[in-house]
Amino acid sequence: MLGKLGLPEEQIKLLREAAAPADGTAAAVAALAREIALNRGKVSDSALAATAQAGLSTEAVLDVLLECAFATLVGLIDNLAGHVELDAFIAPQAW
Question: What is the largest CA-CA distance in the chain?
């Protein structure tokens, strides 16, 4: 999601290390995704307000939720199946 927003690879790497990006929109997306993941989708009013203040639409918030849900589903399938090979287009994004 953040790559689609134009976030540089260096910033994405920092996010993977739990550092917030300098860009306000990217920081709001990262905080929202973190809250969705940690709180099983129970997002606080303050987190939603922060996304609105950063200019994210309701559709963008739902996109973040769907990305989190997809990543969770892939993780569950991987745990069940043992190992899911990444498609070629996504393999360069692996870490």
Answer: 41
